[in-house]
Write a structure and sequence with these properties.
Blueprint lengths: L5 H8 L2 H7 L3 H15 L5 H10 L12 H9 L6 H22 L5 H14 L3 H16 L5 H15 L14 H30 L9 H5 L8 H15 L2 H14 L5 H20 L6 H13 L4 E2 L2 E2 L1 H14 L2 H11 L8 H13 L2
Antiparallel strand pairs: 1-2
Length: 364
């Protein structure tokens, strides 16, 4: 005669799987069984037999029906009793229930679903999909209610992805306070630098004053290899915009071209634009400009899609590239460039720009 253990029964009765199943309605449990478990597992699998046994006692799950030996006998049939088998079976079915709920209710949690997609795009190195997904999420957040969760989510996106999608090997899961503070300092430093760079860049066109940025001097100076590459690039960008020195330009150019594959399309565009603007500044002030180096910057920007905004290629940049290539007689690369990127121009001027570009190419 088999004697059932009261202690074992009580443990099963309080099992996380059972409390989880108890919260489901009959209709939800039926959908879990038919739409998910039956499609995912064959008839003789452990998860399917365990759910078949448990559903008969939903939602109360009376203790007298939940002895480990009874469940083992039904699920594993003639196999010798092993309590670990039962523990593992309960755990596996609970995992499947969580997967089912995520699948069924994903539309109720669009932000969390989009975060998963964002991380998957990064995992599979789908750069264009990653950038489009991130831009879409930023737009959604701008219109979200201004509660604490909104700001928490926005900070999480900014910290983990926006300023450096490759994350510079940051270990965000590390709970050490010093490490967390260091990462947060890096995030705020880059934010201050980007903010200041934009104001200095606008000042040269609009003659607008540059506002004071708290601790800007500290985050812009004494930058070394212990700082992230993105931090170094924006610190050099600020110095270039302030002083217009050639040695700063060369240092920034080298770092950007060596590390552009680490940056988002937006950061690549900003940094290359600062470099291009510096060359334009030199030309405007009568200084010698090396057009080959200018073309190299354009070619890097093209290769890393830095001149695309919402999938549209910047028309002014396009025309500048065509004119420069004709000047330098870089015709094979120009022909390939026109064929690949003219379809990405704005629809209302696409054909005209393409025909003019090809005419310049053929008569160059």
């Amino acid at each position: 005669m088999i004697h059932f253990s009261t202690a074992k029964t009580a443990a099963l009765h309080n099992n996380k799987l059972l409390t989880f199943l108890s919260a489901l309605s009959e209709a939800q449990l039926k959908e879990f069984r038919i739409s998910y478990i039956h499609k995912r597992f064959s008839k003789d699998t452990v998860s399917r037999r365990l759910l078949h046994y448990l559903q008969k006692y939903h939602p109360e799950f009376p203790a007298e029906k939940l002895s480990a030996e009874k469940i083992h006998s039904f699920v594993f049939q003639k196999a010798a009793f092993n309590r670990d088998h039962i523990t593992n079976a309960f755990s596996d079915l609970r995992k499947e229930l969580k997967r089912f709920l995520i699948w069924k209710y994903q539309d109720d949690f669009p932000f969390e679903r989009d975060m998963i997609l964002l991380q998957l795009f990064e995992k599979f190195k789908l750069k264009k999909h990653f950038d489009q997904q991130l831009k879409s999420m930023e737009k959604e957040l701008e219109g979200a209610p201004g509660d604490i969760w909104h700001w928490s989510k926005k900070m999480r996106i900014a910290h983990e992805f926006y300023f450096d999608p490759k994350k510079e090997q940051k270990v965000l899961e590390n709970n050490a306070l010093s490490n967390a503070l260091q990462q947060l300092d890096d995030f705020h430093a880059i934010a201050k630098l980007k903010y200041a760079c934009e104001f200095y860049n606008r000042q040269q066109v609009l003659q607008t004053p540059v506002p004071d940025v708290f601790l800007l001097t500290e985050v812009a100076q004494s930058i070394g290899s212990d700082h992230s590459i993105l931090h170094q690039c924006f610190a050099l960008s600020l110095q270039l915009l302030q002083h217009r020195e050639e040695k700063i330009f060369l240092a920034l150019r080298q770092k950007v071209l060596e590390n552009i594959h680490l940056f988002s399309a937006e950061n690549s565009q900003i940094l290359i634009t600062y470099l291009l603007n510096h060359i334009a500044y030199k030309s405007k002030n009568g200084q010698k400009v090396y057009t080959e180096k200018l073309l190299t910057l354009y070619q890097y920007g093209v290769a890393y899609e830095a001149f695309l905004v919402d999938g549209i290629f910047n028309e002014d940049i396009f025309n500048n590239i065509v004119e420069l290539c004709c000047q330098l007689k870089v015709f094979p690369w120009l022909e390939s460039f026109i064929d690949q990127w003219s379809p990405k121009l704005k629809a209302d001027s696409q054909m005209d720009t393409m025909h003019i570009s090809k005419s310049l190419l053929h008569f160059g």
